[in-house]
Amino acid sequence: MAKKRPQTKSKQPQLKDGEIPVVGAREPCPCGSGRRYKACHGRSAAHAVTELVQRPFEGLPGEGDWIALRELVPAATVELKLREDLPEGVPSVTLATVLPMAWPALRRDDGSVLIGLQNDTASGDISRDLADTLQRALTAEPGTPVQGRRAPADGPRLQDLLDPEGAFEPVVHSGFEFWVPDAENATPEVAASLERANAAAIATVKLSGVDAAYWCETPDKNHLRWVMPYPEEQLLDALARLHAAGQSSLGEGTRLVGSFRAHGLTVPVWDLPSGVGAEDVEKPAAEFAERLAAALATDAPLTADERRARGGLTNRQVTLS
Fold it and tell me: What's the pTM?
């Protein structure tokens, strides 16, 4: 019997991390380590996809409004401007709080694109997931929705695709008729979805005198929810100073009741009497912004009363994301 020749392993090419292709989790890693992909380069790739980005909208114009439309506002749209020219056949790109049947995106019959903001995302980076959806919507067939998927870990983010100088100007709607150009001729599925969405929508108005503040109406009382761009600890100290001094309200019958924490920013919330509308808090909100600016500029240690006020605000803080 002839001897078997000793087998020699061919030398695997050395690949850089950025060149490692994605393969099945149980397949050998293409880098040549001899380990399965999931235990080698797949581990860092999975981590990059699932790691939570605390401030996904940081660096975008209108970061506070992005957060408000994601978490607080039922029905709103914003025209988006891309860094590059729109592809031929795409007249416009519009961000919407939500789309019918919770579609991530929709390419309309006329070629325009709608992107839904209030959707579950597959990774820890909402910005990357939305950018992936936007790119696929730009090339989708007119008249078709775009389904969700996990965005590639090395894919672009909204900050890479959107014009950094483009204005972010939300238009708040009373309902979701913006879904379809002709609501009377909508498909039965879309019509049913539109009816359900309109029934659940809470009346909401964006204040014009301050940034990222939204009044909303509920059966028992109204609220003002204001997304603020300051570091959380500094903002809570400032709010505590105002609260302890009796200067945290927005007028008679109003009360600062706590705050949300959403996508890296803090959202103070005021209870308002049911008779107080959005126009009634425009001036008080502008005046509060001046008091807050002065409190933010103070770096003296908190007094005992201010520490108690801060503890109360912290205890009433809810994390949305």
Answer: 0.83
